[in-house]
Amino acid sequence: EAGVAQSPRYKIIEKRQSVAFWCNPISGHATLYWYQQILGQGPKLLIQFQNNGVVDDSQLPKDRFSAERLKGVDSTLKIQPAKLEDSAVYLCASSGRRYQETQYFGPGTRLLVL
Amino acid sequence: DQQVKQNSPSLSVQEGRISILNCDYTNSMFDYFLWYKKYPAEGPTFLISISSIKDKNEDGRFTVFLNKSAKHLSLHIVPSQPGDSAVYFCAAEGGANSKLTFGKGITLSVRP
C-alpha cells in the first residue's frame, strides 16, 4: 500500500513570496490533515478535511494560508505572502473516517523563508 | 497552553536496557493516546496507541502504560536497540472530530 505522498520535499523562498505544497493521501482515506511543525515543537494541526469539506481550520492563519481538497482526494496548501516565521516542516497526514483512526504521515515539506 | 507535555527533551540509554519515555497531559477530555516515532527528514510513524478504557497496551518490544488519575502515560521499550534512536512524540485526542494534540517530543539515543 502506497503511503502519503508530498511534494516538494524542500523549498526555499524569500519573505512575501508565495508557495504551494501538494499532498496525495493513502488511497481510500477520507480524512486529510495539514500540520505545521516548527523546529523543537510537535506538529500543530492547521486544517482537517473530511472528503472535500473542512472539519477544523481553527488554527489556520487565514489571512495568508489557504488549503483546498476539491475532489476529496489530493490537497494543496498555499502560503501567500510568506513570513519568516512560516519556516517549518509542513506535514500531511491521512486516516479513515472512523473514530480513533490512526493518522499516517507523509515525509513533509521543509520550508525555509529568507 | 500545552495540553500534552514531554518534559524531558532527551534520553540516552545503553543498548539492551529499558527506555522509559514519559508524557503528561492536562485535558481530562482526552481518551485516546498515541506514540509516534520520527527519524530525521521523515514524517512521524505511528508506533502504538492506547484507549482510556485500558491501562496497558503491548506490541512486541513496545508497551504503553496509562495512568488516568495522574494524567500520565509512558512508553517502555525493552530491549532498546540502536535503531530505536529517534524523536518520540506523545499525542492525544478526545471526542469525535477532536484534533490530535502533540507534545514537543523527546530525542532517544540508544548507545551500542
Structure description:
The complex is a heterodimer of chains A (114) and B (112). Chain A is built from no helices and eleven strands. Chain A has 114 residues and is mostly beta strands. Chain A has one domain: Immunoglobulins (Immunoglobulin-like, Sandwich), CATH 2.60.40. In chain A, the strands form two sheets. In chain A, strands 2, 4, 5, 6, 9, 10 and 11 form a seven-stranded mixed beta sheet that branches. A four-stranded antiparallel beta sheet of chain A has the order 1-3-8-7, with no helix packed on it. Chain B contains no helices and eleven strands. The mean pLDDT of chain B is 94. In chain B, a hairpin with a 2-residue loop joins β6 (56-59) and β7 (62-67).
Secondary-structure element string of chain A: EEEEEEEEEEE
Shape of chain A: globular
Number of DSSP helical runs of chain B: 0
Number of beta-strand segments of chain A = 11
Helicity range of chain B: under 10%
> How many distinct domains of chain B?
1
Low-pLDDT runs of chain A: none
CATH topology of chain A: Immunoglobulin-like
Portion in strands of chain A: over 45%
Low-confidence stretches of chain B: none
Order of helices and strands of chain B: EEEEEEEEEEE
Mean pLDDT rating of chain A: 93
Q: How many helices of chain A in DSSP terms?
A: 0
Distance between the termini of chain A: 37 Å
CATH superfamily of chain A: Immunoglobulins
Tell me the layout of helices and strands:
The complex is a heterodimer of chains A (114) and B (112).
Chain A: E1 5-7, E2 10-13, E3 19-24, E4 31-37, E5 44-50, E6 53-56, E7 65-68, E8 75-79, E9 88-95, E10 104-105, E11 109-113
Parallel strand pairs in A: 2-11
Antiparallel strand pairs in A: 1-3, 3-8, 4-5, 4-9, 5-6, 7-8, 9-10, 9-11
Chain B: E1 4-5, E2 10-14, E3 19-25, E4 32-38, E5 45-51, E6 56-59, E7 62-67, E8 72-77, E9 86-93, E10 101-102, E11 106-111
Parallel strand pairs in B: 2-11
Antiparallel strand pairs in B: 1-3, 3-8, 4-5, 4-9, 6-7, 7-8, 9-10, 9-11
